[in-house]
Amino acid sequence: MTSVLGYARTFFVGGSYRPNPLSTLDDEIERFHSTLGLLADHLKNGDPLLNDLTEERLLQGPFSDAMTHAGQLAMLRRLFGDPVPPENFIVADISKERIGPSQPNPTSPDADWPEAPPHT
Question: Which of 12, 73, 80, 109 is deepest in the core (most CB within 10 A)?
Fold first, then answer.
């Protein structure tokens, strides 16, 4: 996902994005959140897109790709036995200022979760 977001950022800054492999997952998580923060700053600042790209194309391209990857990760967690708890995202505590790893618990978790892992 870092590569997808880094690629999306190139439409604001130019160039290309090819991240070097990192030695730990924690380092990769830190890089992901840093890249997400940089991209969020471009969006928040209203920075112009390069190469005649439109916001719709940004959504249709790398942002849709990132959402697809988020779904794939959720599927892998479910297969591993640690599914993402279901929640009503219409009322979720989502904030554009909170893009780091520290996220709130679900605001409105589903009451009925028959496939919940035993530790939940």
Answer: 12
Task: Report which residue type is found at 10.
Answer: T
CA of 48: how far to CAs of 5, 32, 61, 75, 91, in Å? 17, 23, 17, 35, 31
Q: Contact at 8 Å (CB) between 9 and 39?
A: yes
Domain spans, the chain: 2-80
Torsions phi, psi for 18 (to 5 deg): -135, 90
Angle of helix 2-13 versus helix 25-45 axis, rounded to 10: 30
CA separation for the pair 78, 81 (Å, rounded): 5
Task: Characterize 32-44 residue by residue with b for buried, 16 or more Cβ atoms within 10 angstroms of its Cβ, and e for exposed.
Answer: bbebbeebeebee
Which residue is listed with tokens 């950022």? Answer: 9
CB 35 within 8 A of CB 5: yes
Mean pLDDT calculated for residue range 31-50: 96
pLDDT reported for residue 20: 94
